[in-house]
Amino acid sequence: MTGSTWSVPETEVVQSIRDSLDDRAAGATDPPDVLATVVGVEGNAYRRPGAKMLLSPDGEGVGAITAGCLEEDLASVAERIRETGTPEVVTYDLMDDDEDIWGLGVGCNGVIDVLLEPLTETYRPAVDAFAEGHDVAVATVLDGGDGPLARGDRAYYRPDDGTLRTPAGDPATDWPAGLTGAAGDLAGRGRGDTLVFDDGETTVEVFVDGIAAPTDLVVFGTGHDVGPVTELAARNDFRVTVVGFRGAVDPAERFPEADRTVTTSPGRLEEADGLRLDDRTHAVVMTHNFVDDRIVVETLLDAGVAYVGLMGPRERFEEMLEAFADEGRRFTEAELDPLYTPVGLDLGGGSPYQIAHSIVAEVLAVANDREPRHLKTREGPIHERVDLDAGDGDGGAAGGSPDAPTQ
Amino acid sequence: MTGSTWSVPETEVVQSIRDSLDDRAAGATDPPDVLATVVGVEGNAYRRPGAKMLLSPDGEGVGAITAGCLEEDLASVAERIRETGTPEVVTYDLMDDDEDIWGLGVGCNGVIDVLLEPLTETYRPAVDAFAEGHDVAVATVLDGGDGPLARGDRAYYRPDDGTLRTPAGDPATDWPAGLTGAAGDLAGRGRGDTLVFDDGETTVEVFVDGIAAPTDLVVFGTGHDVGPVTELAARNDFRVTVVGFRGAVDPAERFPEADRTVTTSPGRLEEADGLRLDDRTHAVVMTHNFVDDRIVVETLLDAGVAYVGLMGPRERFEEMLEAFADEGRRFTEAELDPLYTPVGLDLGGGSPYQIAHSIVAEVLAVANDREPRHLKTREGPIHERVDLDAGDGDGGAAGGSPDAPTQ
């Protein structure tokens, strides 16, 4: 497996799963791809629960579940699973055992539980939801206890639907009632967790893999400086739309990394096809044209977007506020809260890539609701714990592991 | 000009200048390339003074001096300069003039002074210093007044040498005595500024272009996760060395974006060929092997490097400190100051690229001596002012413009 297929964005891993399902649906008769998902992490692992890797019969893999420590062994487990057709949970114990590690040279730490399964159509609803821009949680039974569920059984929960469903789309009736609340929480945050349900008769262990829809980043502008921003944002799993205005260069041609491009005019953003401006939208405004920027900023703030990064010095925005005031438009402090100008984190770099790096770093921090300080100065675990009590309060969830740190 | 040549790292712009000089030295008889350098900025410009672009006769350019607003006009000025052979300073006034901008559709703001000159061997000492890893300041006369200096005359200052020299290497005697102090300051910080010297008889205007040697980033480890870190660091102008240990994959093969790769063992870092560990070195330690990491961290801290980012959760480093203590090695708080663990800024992302993005953002901030907060929360100008009083105190520098903001 090459480094380039290992470090693909998460969006591309999901796309590979979709492609694989499509190939089989179209009649491909190769042995199936095997999907490996991290379902549990303890200690010092590189990835979080929910990290996925798709292993093809030729030994290639797309995606990363460790920093390269287990990939060889996984390929041989995948081979076995292709033969048996049965999902397995494999536990890798890579904890440092004093100096033994020197001899082993394992090069990784932590205990990692990995679910390996032949990829089948039961996964289809997840990739469909992702493609349509909806959050989804994939629930997979790791241990069905004495009940009706077996390892590998699957159900889905979409917050926009509100019902736990089987892969065929029917309500999933055999599943623990307490699942939906935690599933909704995990889906929205794109986090995975193993939940244990005990109804007094049997114990069921379910891995819930929350797959959040990609965050929308809309970049306004078609200057050269838009290129590095678009490229870095796409690699960081944003769904990037580049918006160009009247007579500008064709954004589709210049920004191949963008998921979508739109050509419109500043006053017609709300009618523009495929341009969703709502409280999930993040936007960077860098047309370098004062009047265009002003109209776009007003439209975005009025639409209540989550983030507006405006390129330019503070004085330029102060001029913009004066121009708004001249038109009788005044913004409250709360209305200006999503506006970040000058755009970007204070990293001190001045090259095009350094500017783009600081912009995308800022959007990441805001989208993930983080204060962009050094991790070393942060108190507590790197990742917040999963809110196990979230949901409909029927008390089904009896436990679960906290989100593991990524490092 | 394509976006990809516009947004190249600064290191590649300097490399292009070198290649162009080499071609001519080898006998190429094409019309010369023209070097465009931003020598003054007022208002809302994208790049800082010192931003460079190399314009070739076929209309192509490497590097960026604006966000794409002037590049077409520059090509025609360059054509003129190829014919006359005479350097020119061209001033572009892109300030917003109320609504006129709408009609103009210029799409950029600010007043920008650009020096355009035929690229000649007088620039050779700058690219040589850069290639050898030395800071250098290139002093170019913009206006010689009534004195012996003429526009385009050039001198060099290397802090490691301490003497202002002509392109031929002789001491530069006709130049303002006050130049060396400011030149040393600007060279170390990689900043450019126009300085005005008035000795009572004549006024001389000199642009001093500080070109700092690239910052060294040494990455320890050869896992897949090293790939995105190496790639992003190289694009952000770090000179990247990847260090692999005994029997690991060949780093040269796996990390094509690295400037150098070294294979050694953890205990022999100080003897390793081409590995410079000093107070300018920044390092990321991500071997995923506890013992290797521990030896590397100790060596780096003892060498007094500027920054050590250690991958892994805080608890892992606490274990490491215990292991050090068991060997009788204790670190003071000051000794641990350069150590950042968990490595990276708190941006909340968990994918390989997101982790790498947060690591490189942290290294950028530390290398540039910045607190990584939102620029919108930062008081004062985005870039610190040039210390005009730096230097040998002979009072020659009579003025100069502050560093311009990049946005």
UniProtKB/TrEMBL annotation, chains A, B:
InterPro entries registered for this protein in UniProt: MoCofactor_Util/Proc, XdhC_CoxI, XdhC_Rossmann_dom
Residues annotated as domain XdhC Rossmann: 217-363
UniProt domain XdhC- CoxI: residue ranges: 33-93
Pfam families assigned: XdhC_C, XdhC_CoxI
Gene3D superfamilies with a match to the protein in the record: NAD(P)-binding Rossmann-like Domain
Region annotated Disordered, chain positions: 156-175, 372-407
Superkingdom as given in the UniProt entry: Archaea
Bias-annotated ranges (Basic and acidic residues): 372-388
Transmembrane intervals: none
PANTHER family named among the record's database cross-references: ALDEHYDE OXIDOREDUCTASE MOLYBDENUM COFACTOR ASSEMBLY PROTEIN, XANTHINE DEHYDROGENASE SUBUNIT A-RELATED
Protein name (Swiss-Prot/TrEMBL): Xanthine dehydrogenase accessory factor
